[in-house]
Design brief:
five-stranded parallel β-sheet, alpha/beta, transit peptide, 2 domains, 43% helix, globular, Malonyl-Coenzyme A Acyl Carrier Protein, domain 2, 10 strands, Alpha-Beta Plaits
Length: 389
């Protein structure tokens, strides 16, 4: 491992340079030194004495880490306050203000809550505060970034995960999130729709429930009604999205389908369903203009629960994600499935709230025992509301 440290932190240094290579880290100062081939540097930095090119030393799973980035629903007024001690965090918010055209830091710190909760503001706010939390993590626990082997983000959190992994630049990612949020907000206003959190049982009939709800909507004169699972959170927990009339039907008939508990989420639309189709083209156009790179660490897609393989794969699935269900439970199984007796990596939730930790606990209790999170407010409360978009 000596070679890694001789190169200024090895993987940590390479990831840090790729992550903060834009002017976002210090808009007023000179850009950091250029790295001609970060992937080459990262590969060479992991070579020990006598190792063959392309080979990586084996590490104990218990010394590795996984980073998780939250999505819409985890926001709270005051988020980011505890991170402002780091100068680079203020620089991120200054850059965000230029990209967005409004003071995101002021909105994040002081609200009002109604404005922060709006999709058009919430998604950029979560993206920036998650990367600000990543900067705090880099200062406090650099070994976590050094030894990271995988990352994943819930819905909009996937953009932050890809920035961390070096696939996107900060400003490019923020611009894409801005366009995505505006398009999803506009699509939400076109049809009265929403999202319903459902805690079920092993015998819960999700498909039958959604089918009956759609048929109910047709009796009300709604053409092409939508009602489908939008989020797979953990065993026996789903989020169903669709027309409001369909969701109301499910609440009124919850016992028929063996629902233990239902709750409407505080969002304005049916995210991750075909009702978001108007948002596809604006996001697709902006992603075509971005120089997406292959991630330096494994990043798992919400669409199929598998690792992204190349830049075109990222471009395609980030668009598709808007209208496809978030397969978070499947991602947790893909990352944490291992032979009995094998240690689990440290898992850190990078952003506001602890929802992803709560989901991990329900997916894999042993993996959750190595979980922690980066606090982003001075007095952060645990909130286990389901995520949305």
């Amino acid at each position: 491992m000596a070679a890694r440290w001789r190169l200024g932190g090895g993987a940590s240094g390479a990831l840090g340079r790729r992550l903060w290579c834009s002017r976002a880290r210090d808009p007023a100062g000179p850009p950091p030194p250029a790295v001609e081939d970060v992937a080459e540097l990262l590969r060479d930095a992991t070579l020990g004495p006598g190792s063959k090119a392309g080979a990586r030393p084996r590490r104990s799973p218990g010394t590795t880490s996984v980073l998780l980035f939250p999505g819409q629903g985890s926001q709270s007024v005051g988020m980011g306050r505890s991170l402002l001690r780091y100068p680079s965090v203020r620089a991120l918010y200054e850059c965000a203000a230029r990209v967005l055209g409004y003071d995101l830091l002021e909105l994040s710190l002081r609200g009002p809550r109604e404005e922060l909760d709006r999709t058009v503001h919430c998604q950029p706010a979560l993206y920036v505060v998650s990367l600000a939390a990543l900067e705090a993590l880099r200062h406090r626990r650099p070994e976590v970034i050094e030894n990271c082997v995988a990352a994943a983000g819930f819905s909009v959190g996937e953009f932050a995960a890809l920035v961390f992994a070096g696939a996107l630049e900060f400003e490019e990612g923020l611009h894409a999130v801005k366009v995505r949020a505006e398009a999803m907000q506009e699509a939400s206003t076109a049809v009265p729709s929403g999202m319903l959190s459902v805690l079920g049982k092993p015998q819960t009939q999700y498909k039958r429930a959604c089918l009956d709800a759609r048929e109910h909507c047709q009796t009300l004169g709604i053409k092409q009604p939508v009602c489908e699972v939008a989020n797979y959170l953990f065993p026996d927990c789903r989020v169903i999205s669709g027309h409001l009339q369909a969701l109301q039907f499910l609440q009124e008939n919850s016992s028929r389908y063996h629902f233990r508990r239902t709750k409407m989420l505080p969002v304005s639309g049916a995210f991750h369903t075909q009702l978001m189709e108007p948002a596809l083209e604006p996001l697709a156009q902006v992603l075509k203009k971005i120089d997406i790179k292959k991630p330096l660490v494994s990043v798992y897609s919400n669409v199929d629960g598998n690792k992204y393989m190349h830049a075109n794969h990222i471009q395609k699935l980030l668009v598709k994600q808007v209208v496809c269900p978030v397969k978070w439970e499947q991602i947790m199984h893909a990352i944490f499935e291992r032979k009995k007796g094998t240690d689990f990596p440290q898992t850190i939730e990078v952003g506001p709230g602890k929802q992803l930790g709560a989901m991990l606990k329900n997916c894999n209790l042993k993996a959750w025992k190595a979980y922690s999170h980066v606090e982003v407010t001075e007095e952060e409360e645990q909130d286990e509301e389901p995520l949305a978009g």
